[in-house]
Amino acid sequence: MEEKVIFEKVLEILKPYVREAEDLKTATEETDILNDLKVNSSRLVDIILAIEDEFDIEVSDDEADEVQTIGDTVSLITGKI
Question: What is the model's pTM?
């Protein structure tokens, strides 16, 4: 699967959790999920579960703790599929 396709799927997964959906329109791989998109940190578990379901992968707690940006998320996924 191409990274661009994964990137778009990650944006769709994040959509219900961001404070301002408009922020996703300008999101890049460098966009910080918590700070730039203002995702509540308590919702990260839901996002990780959605990623696991969408891509049929498993993400450990340690791996989840390393994810800060959309690019980190895409890299994590591409490393597992």
Answer: 0.93
